[in-house]
Structures are given as C-alpha cells and as structure tokens.
C-alpha cells in the first residue's frame, strides 16, 4: 500500500463517524452551537495496568509484621489524620484535593481491565454484545461538546497482553468506539503514523491532517460520501483536535511539571509505557471538549523484588522505587493544573487498577493478586475531597468499614457528568433495557 493511501477499513471507520459518538445529527447539532463556549463536565480515567499495591501506596499498615507492612513508611498529608506513602510527598501536600477509597470491593481476580473501564465484573452474566465501556456510554448519551472533538478519546496504548486492553463499545456498536490517539490501532485513525514524540512537532501533526484530507480526496473517497458526511469529515479533521493533541503548545515549565517518558518502552514488555505526558494531553483534550479520556499507565504487576532485602539479594529491579516518584509528580501536576485552570469543579479524575495485592509479601519478595479489596484515587468533579472513604483490617486484606462497590464508583462518575445511573437505561442488541451500573445506581454518598 502506498504510504499516503488511506486504508479502506480506516476510512470506513471515519466515514461512519464511529469516533466516540460523532454521529451526524450530533455533529450538526454541535456545529450549530459552535459559536458558544459553555463549560462541560468530563472524566479522565487512568488505569494502572496490572494492579498496584494498595498497602504500599495509600493504605499503609506500619504496625503490621514486616512481611505485611513492607519497606515504606507513612507520612502525614495536608489533611489532618490522613497518611500516605512517603514516596508521594507531592500528593501528600495535595490531599485536600483528593479522595482515597480504601475499601473498593467486588474486584475480579484476573488481569482483565474490563471492570476498570466499565465497572462490570467480567465473571458475571453479560448482555448480548457485552457491556460498553464507560466512555462509549457517555458518548451515546451526551454526544460531542464541539463538532470536531470526539466525546470519547482513548490515549491507551495497545498492550501485548490482551486482557490489559480496553474492552470496546459492547452492545452499543462500533460507532461508539473511542477516538484512539495511541497504540497499534493508530493506523486506522486520522492521526495515522503520529506517535507521542511527533506530537511535540506541531508542523508534523498538522501535516498529517492536511495529507489525510488530500489523500482521501485524491482517491475519490471524499467525493463518494454524501454532502452531510463530507461536511462531518471536514469538521472531524479541523485544527481543534490537532491542537489539543499538540503538547508542544504548552509552556516548557508545564511539560516539565508533568514529566515525560518514552512511549516506545512498554513496561515489562507487555504493560503500557510509563508516559506522564499522557496526563497533560488528557487535560488538553477535556479543555478542547472531550467528555471522557481514558489512558493506561505503566505496569504495576509486581510479584517480586519489592523491598530492601530484595535489593540486597539482587532479585529483580525494585519497580516501586522507580515508579512511585514519577507517579507522584505527574498525578499531582494534573490535580494542581486542573485547579489552577478552574477545571476542578467540572473534570473528575479517577485512578485505579484491576485489583489489590496480597497482604503478605511472597517468597519472591513481591505481592500477588488480591481481589478481596482494592483502592481508588479520585480528584476534581466538584466532589467533597480531602477525605478517606472506607477502611481495611490490620493487614489491608479485607474491607472492615464502608465497603464501596464498582456500581457506586461508576454511578459517581456518571453523576458528575449529569447522568442518573439509577434511572437511565440503554437497549442491548435484543432491545432489552440495561442499567448503566451493577447493583445500586447510587453514587458514593460521602463524595456528593
């Protein structure tokens, strides 16, 4: 295939306007209102690939035996009585802008990201077509804010381990799949051939958009579309999306504040890259009009080499010492940035993995999978922050107060977007109405 030919498969995805809810009626409706700038609600969902160790990050147990407590010590935060890991000094000073859920229950036990992206346990019965991921549902219900910015944008990299990847739009169909800006599917989207390093070069980025327009027109593809689809195609490839993805427009000090990583290095080969700049790009996208942005970050499936003894015995590289400071820097930068830019009331941030980790450190000097309890970090969204919700027992193995379900967590995200998960339903392939979340559709009452 010539280098500048738009693949038919990729073009059909665009021609069908299957990018995060960019249906033609929604596009034209949004275009009619394009002259007005109104605030919109949004969610940035950050998936910590592989399941982070909750008891080494936000639920430390310093009084437990050392084979439970691990090497890290708790430090005070700027909220009285709340402590987190000493490796997170920047997050500690922003605790008043955060909420920690220490008692997330109902986790599945395998490496399967589906529950993180849609709140549904994959082991339970699913409707025909499967549950749609959160962003697809929002795109279906609310449509785009701006005609040239998809409602749902995925910054997720494609992992070689399939269960780490986003599950897709489920019974909503491919027209509600996200606009994918990263990973192996990028050849099927408007930014084909552009990776994170190229996004720093605005000229290269804009050239990709211009080339796509010319190539499509030369091949006759644009002429083959009807007038309305051609109009929508032009809106989709406008400069607004290109500018949102061009982080070189940010001051150098802002980029440095978040930090940068190599998008070509997939952690432990099958995880996601550790790229703090994705968080900055997510903030730019919600500012541009995206309602939901998802991203996957690093790999947290650490089964060994997690303490001082492991370093002495030269077991495996101590990933916590490597990952924690980078995570501390980029997440605190995002939280502070949202407040500085007046987005903290409108943009919700949620960070979690697929399960927690075992209380006891294993013989391999690591922690294994633990579905009994999990931890989530939230910010923004106009929520009541500066608090910890729920608690675990003395070894961080079970929730002992205020267990929080995935249904409650996702109902909170929907609530912050103005969607009542207790009332709204969507029809599956058979036409049967399906509620958006499992169990109760009530949001976490402590946050609302």
Stated plainly, the CATH topology is called Alkaline Phosphatase, subunit A
Relative strand content: 5-15%
CATH class: Alpha Beta
Overall spatial form: globular
Strand order of the largest sheet: 6-5-7-1-8-11-4-12
- The assigned structural class equals alpha/beta
Number of DSSP helices? 16
Instruction: Kindly report the oligomeric state of this protein.
Output: single chain
- Please identify which CATH superfamily we are dealing with: Alkaline Phosphatase, subunit A
Mean pLDDT: 83
Through-space gap between termini = 53 Å
How many structural domains can be distinguished in the coordinates?
A: 1
Report the strand count: 16
Describe the structure in your own words.
- InterPro entries: Alkaline_phosphatase_core_sf, DUF1501, TAT_signal.
- By secondary structure, the chain is of the alpha/beta class.
- The chain has a single domain (43-182, 247-435), classed as Alkaline Phosphatase, subunit A, CATH 3.40.720.10.
- It has helices at residues 8-15, 24-32, 54-57, 66-69, 89-92, 114-118, 134-142, 202-218, 221-224, 227-236, 239-244, 252-258, 277-288, 308-312, 319-340, 406-416; strands at 42-48, 74-76, 83-85, 98-104, 152-154, 179-180, 292-297, 347-352, 356-357, 369-370, 374-380, 387-389, 391-392, 399-401, 425-427, 433-435.
- The strands form five sheets. The chain has an eight-stranded mixed sheet, sandwiched between helices. A two-stranded antiparallel sheet has the order 2-3.
- Helix 13 packs parallel to helix 15.
- The longest helix has 22 residues, at 319-340.
- The radius of gyration is 22 Å and the shape is globular.
- The termini are far apart.
